[in-house]
């Protein structure tokens, strides 16, 4: 059934049917609509593009924009011409429009001068132009990256320069300019830069008022270092130098350190109020100093010492800094409140701490020590020489001792032999040998006594040697009596054996002592002592003495004024004390960084945020062209909508009316809720409504596609829906737009006319004049 | 010629034609009468399916119209002339073009169609108004063009749907004269829906009275109006009598003879 129906439809199409007329109409409508939409949009685009080009030149035509005050434009032009002839031979200048009192000059720089250096020095090159109000870059194709913190710009520029398609990068104010090799690389380079930007993040650490670090730059650096070491990050750098050059930032940093130093050495005055007095932060208290005695009602004198209360403790005591005079002048510690430059009531007594005085004393003491250094070094070197000499003798003494013990052993053997024949004993020879041994031992003892000064461990050995020497003396005495006391010979032999045994033990111990190692250490000590001796101690001493004398001379009044001046300068520089920026890789969260920050700043009263490293700034001219393109697309889109409405209203309402009449005629009345339901459903399902929606959707979509139309915030998928909506609205009012005579159609039916014939001869000619009527005239038999 | 059996049509709950049966012989002129809204126009328009019947059977010269597809129906419609109450002329066409339209669309050469159309217009006395558009003609003339258009095909069956209802009494006459002539001198059958009692009395071979979608009485005019069997017939009889009396009195009193 459906196949035969389809066949019949095809047959109808083959014939010269009205369906074909509608298809032809659609094709012609789409072509005309597209041409119209394209023509209007192209005309508008052409007009705007020409206007834009006449204002700022064609895309990439100019490189530099210089603005100057309108009244100076003559001088400006002359000056610019002179500069470009000197600096950029072959460059070309064009005077642009004057807007709000500023005249624009466009300069096209020859290709060979389009370099990083040229762009970074544009400000310098054109800085002296009379009436100059600004220098800008126009070179295309170019991208601009903004928001990159100052501290990260160099790194970013290095990375971006490596990207294929980038000709060079340059500093463009607080942004990074990226000049491309060709326009078709713009998309790729943009994507690559986005990738690079995504690899990094800037962690911002914000401090509320009162919790700012003393030196945010140093603090940022230590946080960065801590992040690198604790989180094992490849990259974590303090970039809290937003909008400033490094030199200025570090100068401010130095000033902050200087301020800290001065504040640390300013005298701190503590005022204990009298019974009724009450101190308030900000009060100024006067002390006599070198001025006249204070009395209520008198004006403040230059010789008075003035203290400003900076804090009041819970016990009522106030702390303050000296704003006039010096703490050293606080001999009279009776303080009076100052009100409007006049001495007022007595408030209490003051005590003070002068860190400069303490520093001066410490420096004086240090000078004394420094003065002692050359003598100390010389003495130590002498001692070192003696110790080294002693060590040299040490080995010889041990060898001599070994020989002595060998002799003693031989003596013992002799004594043993003599025991059996004392008469044969040569006691004299033995005594001589003993004497010799005793002398050798005495020499060794002396040596060891010296060595004992260096190494106390040889003390025991010395004692043993002394004991041995005494034994030798005893032996000698024994030998003296040998002739008479043969029996004592055996005792002597035993003593000798003891002496030899003790001596061998002692030698073993002495041999264990590292003489060479000790000598090496002694040499090292000697070298250092030598270096110490070479120090320019008079200079150090002189400087210390100068400092010791100078520091107390620094008056509190001067410190307070200096701090005030430093504060003004630091505040004027607006160093971001309440914010630290750390550039790091994007693979770390602020949660991971937070503990490190808390640890470094010493409290948790900070907020951490992660921000992008930078963003690619839309190219103004590119954006302008893009906007123009959008305007063109919007115009085309609006034309498409208008044309669709016109085509629907003029050509299709007649058809829709016929369809509607046919539907209404065939419809059987239904009452009640079913009737209401059917009426509601018919809004969307009525044949003429469906026809309108389909035709509207096809028309507008086709014209949109062919006319490259577009409407902001309207996605492509919604375009057919808009067309369908227009078609539906037109279908709802079809009878009002194109009323049809039902009687005429009925007459046609009664005459046996086909639907096609009724449409061509009755409906279409009676409808609204439009494209369909024009096309229909070819087929009409009664024109 | 025309046979209608068990014809039924409703519009929702409203039954317009109910179990309608009728046979019109060849050459017969049948006049369908009845009160307004009784279903006369619906019934006559169902004959050539300008209105589709819900059920029943309609045969014209043996062709069962109710079973035809659109193409076949178109051919049969050319054999059935239809004259509308509102004339239903194509406003943008002249009188002759209105008459020619069906002919040309049927494939008749334009010249031949023109001749035929002019001939039809002559029959209704409008050959001199052939090039006028409907807006330039009176109602009677427009209706005569409508009649010429129906006659141009030389139809086997002429259907008249209250052709004088939209005309003032003077214009009614010129239409009725033509209708009377057609009824007398043509061989085609005619089914006329009208309220014109005098026309019915003079021209009708048979009167069919209809009420509430059904035939209530039919017969020769003298029977239906002289000795009515139905309430509707009785009303028509009384109306005829009243008109006769009133007309006579009026004419006498005003000395109009």
UniProtKB/TrEMBL annotation, chain A:
It comes from Pelosinus fermentans JBW45. Keywords: Membrane, Transmembrane, Transmembrane helix. The chain crosses the membrane at residues 20-44, 633-659, 680-707, 713-733. This is Uncharacterized protein.
TrEMBL record, chain B:
Pfam families: ABC_tran. InterPro entries: AAA+_ATPase (IPR003593), ABC_ATPase_HisP-typ (IPR030679), ABC_transporter-like_ATP-bd (IPR003439), ABC_transporter-like_CS (IPR017871), MetN_ABC_transporter-like (IPR050086), P-loop_NTPase (IPR027417). GO terms for molecular function: ABC-type amino acid transporter activity; ATP binding; ATP hydrolysis activity. It is a peripheral membrane protein. Its EC number is 3.6.3.28. It is found in: Cell membrane. It comes from the Bacteria. It is an enzyme of class 3 (hydrolase). Belongs to the ABC transporter superfamily. This is Phosphonate-transporting ATPase.
């Amino acid at each position: 059934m459906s196949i035969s129906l389809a066949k019949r439809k095809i047959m109808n199409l083959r014939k010269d049917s009205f369906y074909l007329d509608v298809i032809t109409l659609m094709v012609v409508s789409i072509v005309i609509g597209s041409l119209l939409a394209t023509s209007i949009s192209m005309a508008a685009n052409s007009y705007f593009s020409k206007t834009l080009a006449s204002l700022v030149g064609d895309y990439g035509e100019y490189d530099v924009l210089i603005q100057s005050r309108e009244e100076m434009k003559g001088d400006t032009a002359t000056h610019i011409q002179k500069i470009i002839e000197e600096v950029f031979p072959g460059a070309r200048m064009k005077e642009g429009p004057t807007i709000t009192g500023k005249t624009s000059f466009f300069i096209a720089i020859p290709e060979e001068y389009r370099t990083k250096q040229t762009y970074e020095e544009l400000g310098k090159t054109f800085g002296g132009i009379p009436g100059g109000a600004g220098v800008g870059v126009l070179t295309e194709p170019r991208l601009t990256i903004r928001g990159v913190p100052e501290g990260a710009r160099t790194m970013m520029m290095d990375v971006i320069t490596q990207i294929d398609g980038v000709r060079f990068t340059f500093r463009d104010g607080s942004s990074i300019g990226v000049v491309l090799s060709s326009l078709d690389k713009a998309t790729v380079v943009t994507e690559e830069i986005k990738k690079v930007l995504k690899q990094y993040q800037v962690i911002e650490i914000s401090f509320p008022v009162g919790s700012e670090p003393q030196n945010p730059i140093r603090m940022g650096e230590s946080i960065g270092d801590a992040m690198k070491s604790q989180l094992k990050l490849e990259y974590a750098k303090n970039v809290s130098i937003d909008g400033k050059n490094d030199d200025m930032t570090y100068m401010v940093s130095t000033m902050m350190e200087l301020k800290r130093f001065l504040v640390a050495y300013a005298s701190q005055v503590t005022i204990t109020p009298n019974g009724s007095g009450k101190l308030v932060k900000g009060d100024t208290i006067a002390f006599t100093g070198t001025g006249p005695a204070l009395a209520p009602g008198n004006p403040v004198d230059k010789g008075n010492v003035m203290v400003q209360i900076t804090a009041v403790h819970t016990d009522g005591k106030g702390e303050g800094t000296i704003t006039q005079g010096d703490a050293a002048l606080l001999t009279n510690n009776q303080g009076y409140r100052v009100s409007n430059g006049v001495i007022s009531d007595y408030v209490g007594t003051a005590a003070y701490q002068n860190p400069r005085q303490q520093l001066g004393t410490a420096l004086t003491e240090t000078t004394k020590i420094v003065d002692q250094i050359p003598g100390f070094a010389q003495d130590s070197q002498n001692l070192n020489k003696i110790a080294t000499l002693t060590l040299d003798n040490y080995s010889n003494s041990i060898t001599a001792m070994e020989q002595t013990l060998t002799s003693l052993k031989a003596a013992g053997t002799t004594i043993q032999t003599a025991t059996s024949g004392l008469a044969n004993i040569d006691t004299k020879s033995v005594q001589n040998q003993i004497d010799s041994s005793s002398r050798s031992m005495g020499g060794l003892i002396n040596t060891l006594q010296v060595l004992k000064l260096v190494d106390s461990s040889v003390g025991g050995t010395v004692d043993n040697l002394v004991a041995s020497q005494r034994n030798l003396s005893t032996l000698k005495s024994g030998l003296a009596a040998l002739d008479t006391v043969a029996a004592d010979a055996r005792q002597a032999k035993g003593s000798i054996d003891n002496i030899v045994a003790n001596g061998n033990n002692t030698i073993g111990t002495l041999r264990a002592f590292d003489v060479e190692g000790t000598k090496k250490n002694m040499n090292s000590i000697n070298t250092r002592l030598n270096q110490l001796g070479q120090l320019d101690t008079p200079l150090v001493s002189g400087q210390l003495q100068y400092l010791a004398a100078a520091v107390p001379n620094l008056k509190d009044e001067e410190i307070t004024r200096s701090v005030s001046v430093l504060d003004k300068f630091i505040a004027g520089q607006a160093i971001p004390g309440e914010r630290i920026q750390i550039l790091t890789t994007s693979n770390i969260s602020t949660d991971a960084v937070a503990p490190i920050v808390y640890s470094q700043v010493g409290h948790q009263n900070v907020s951490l945020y992660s921000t992008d490293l930078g963003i690619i700034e839309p190219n103004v001219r590119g954006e302008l062209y893009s906007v123009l393109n959008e305007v063109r697309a919007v115009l085309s889109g609006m034309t498409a909508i208008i044309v669709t409405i016109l085509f629907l209203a003029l050509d299709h309402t007649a058809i829709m009316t016929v369809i509607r009449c046919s539907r209404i005629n065939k419809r059987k009345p239904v009452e009640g809720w079913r009737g209401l339901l059917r009426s509601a459903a018919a809004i969307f399902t009525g044949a003429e409504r469906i026809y309108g929606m389909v035709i509207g959707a096809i028309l507008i979509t086709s014209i949109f596609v062919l006319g490259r139309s577009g409407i902001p915030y309207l996605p492509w998928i919604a375009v057919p829906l808009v067309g369908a909506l227009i078609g539906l609205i037109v279908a709802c009012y079809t009878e009002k737009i194109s009323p049809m005579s039902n009687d005429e159609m009925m007459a046609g039916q009664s005459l046996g006319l086909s639907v096609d014939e009724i449409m061509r001869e009755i409906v279409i000619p009676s409808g609204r004049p439009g494209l369909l009527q024009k096309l229909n005239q070819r087929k009409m038999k009664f024109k | 010629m025309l046979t209608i059996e068990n014809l039924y049509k409703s519009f929702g709950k409203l039954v317009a034609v109910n179990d309608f049966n009728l046979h019109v012989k060849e050459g017969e002129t049948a006049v369908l009468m009845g009160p307004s809204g009784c279903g006369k126009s619906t019934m006559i328009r169902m004959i050539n399916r300008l209105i589709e019947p819900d059920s029943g059977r309609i045969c014209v010269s043996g062709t069962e119209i109710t079973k035809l597809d659109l193409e076949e129906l178109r051919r049969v419609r050319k054999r059935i002339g239809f004259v509308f109450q509102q004339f239903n002329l194509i406003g943008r066409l002249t009188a002759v073009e209105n008459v020619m339209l069906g002919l040309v669309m049927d494939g008749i050469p334009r010249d031949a169609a023109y001749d035929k159309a002019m001939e039809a217009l002559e029959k209704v006395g409008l050959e001199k108004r052939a090039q006028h558009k409907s807006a330039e003609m009176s109602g009677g003339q427009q209706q005569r063009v409508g009649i010429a258009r129906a006659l141009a095909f030389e139809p086997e069956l002429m259907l008249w749907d209250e052709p004088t209802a939209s005309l003032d009494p003077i214009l009614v006459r010129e239409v009725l004269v033509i209708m009377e002539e057609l009824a007398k001198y043509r061989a085609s059958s005619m089914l006329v829906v009208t309220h014109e009692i005098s026309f019915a009395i003079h021209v009708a071979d048979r009167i069919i009275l209809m009420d509430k979608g059904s035939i209530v009485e039919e017969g020769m005019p003298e029977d239906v109006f002289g000795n009515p069997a139905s309430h509707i017939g009785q009303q028509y009889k009384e109306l005829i009598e009243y008109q006769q009396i009133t007309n006579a009195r009026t004419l006498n009193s005003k000395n109009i003879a």
